[in-house]
Design brief:
Length: 161
């Protein structure tokens, strides 16, 4: 019995009037998410980054040349509040990984851009990140990965709409 099955058994004993079957999926997804985050953060920390800082650098790198976005865009791409984004940008700027400047199109707006050091760091970190994700998925067969991706894609599409 895994961790979730033990919890389900306890609830089934204590509350036989409730259907605890949903915990089989939701509980396992939650537990897997926690365990995956721990494994992913090991790579980020090797590069001196938190998960959120990695996300900011990755969002800037994905933007393509000149590797810049407005702070509001970064918040949307990383699902972080603008206040939380400011703290991340402050730390990345202090580390020489990003710069901030006024927007050419709107003098009131700001633009955050990767520095050369930031681009080199995120390229190295992302390369190791992808190898780490591959390692984590290697616990499953390619058929299982394909089936899982299909199910998660369908479910996420419904939840996001």
């Amino acid at each position: 019995m895994d961790h979730v099955a033990r919890i389900q058994a306890e609830w089934a004993r204590e509350r036989p009037d409730l259907d605890v079957a949903p915990q089989g999926v939701i509980g396992r997804l939650h537990r897997i998410g926690t365990l995956l985050t721990e494994q992913l953060c090991l790579v980020y920390s090797r590069y001196g980054l938190s998960e959120g800082e990695f996300d900011v650098l990755a969002a800037l790198r994905r933007a393509g040349h000149p590797y810049e976005r407005a702070p509001g865009e970064l918040a949307a791409f990383t699902m972080v509040t603008t206040g939380g984004m400011t703290k991340r940008i402050d730390r990345l700027e202090a580390g020489g990984l990003v710069t901030r400047r006024r927007s050419a199109g709107d003098g009131r707006g700001r633009v955050v851009a990767l520095t050369r050091a930031g681009r080199e760091l995120i390229d190295a970190a992302f390369t190791e990140h992808m190898a780490n994700e591959r390692r984590l998925l290697d616990a499953l067969t390619s058929e299982q990965v394909g089936a899982l991706e299909g199910l998660l894609t369908a479910w996420l599409g419904r939840l996001e709409s």
